[in-house]
Amino acid sequence: MNLTVGSWRELDEAIADSSWYRHPHRVRSAVVWRGLARSRYSNMSSLARLSEDHPRLERHLVRNFRKYAHREAPGPTTWDWLSLAQHHGLPTRLLDWTFSPLVALHFATAPWPDDEALLLAVDCEGAHELLPDPARSVYEREGSLVFTTEMLAELAEDLEAFDALTEDDPFLVFFEPPSLDERIINQAAVLSTFSDASCHMDDWMEEHPELWRAWRIPADVKREVRDRLDQAHVNERVLMPGLDGLAAWLRRYYSPREAPAEELGGATMEAG
What we know:
- It is built from 14 helices and 8 strands.
- By secondary structure, it is α/β, with parallel strands linked by helices.
- The chain has helices at 8-16, 46-50, 54-68, 78-87, 101-109, 124-128, 135-142, 149-155, 159-163, 182-186, 201-207, 219-231, 236-239, 243-253, and strands spanning 2-4, 31-36, 95-98, 117-123, 147-148, 172-176, 189-194, 212-217.
- It has one domain (2-271).
- A 4-stranded mixed β-sheet has the order 1-8-4-2. A 4-stranded mixed β-sheet has the order 3-7-6-5.
């Protein structure tokens, strides 16, 4: 479902509405969030954007990343390495999400102030109810909202084994990456992956409209939301600790309203 909001208050109320969740009475939210700075952007993975032949290229990208970045040692599993690769901009099948709607709104509103933005929410608990065995059994045994890299490694030690789990339809998994640095921690990062690199999130959403919501944020509302986020100290300085984040925050904060969008930086959910 795709709705347009007319104010910060309306957006805030929409975020708090849990009536559409598969389990609306859950004590903690079962939703993960994603912000797109332009509503016309698609939820296509960086791997899919790289090439039409992206499934074939994936193993070469991952193999060479591990070979040349071996000193980093993010963790023992393929999923730890994939998380590290995504974090540093390697094209992967993963998509960036967050547990925090405010973090997602930051990435939706920091760049392109004159363009309509989009806030996307997915009921990841509902999505995981669609898992096939043995993925469903691993998930239910742990009783967690999302997978960990260890849980995924138990399920499949590499991408080839993961893809082999696909039955009639590829399935979607949300998992929490290891706390590689403060950016991942501060952004409350979550990653998603399909059991088939050729699958796209937008196609999955079309097949499961009951498991997601999206809110279009017009440019004038986008500016209002941005001001609220800055007042709440949700900004580049916090979400991307270090001099790069500090400089990006100051550049955006002190830019005049009419400044060209290109001058404000290009923050996306992939910035994490």
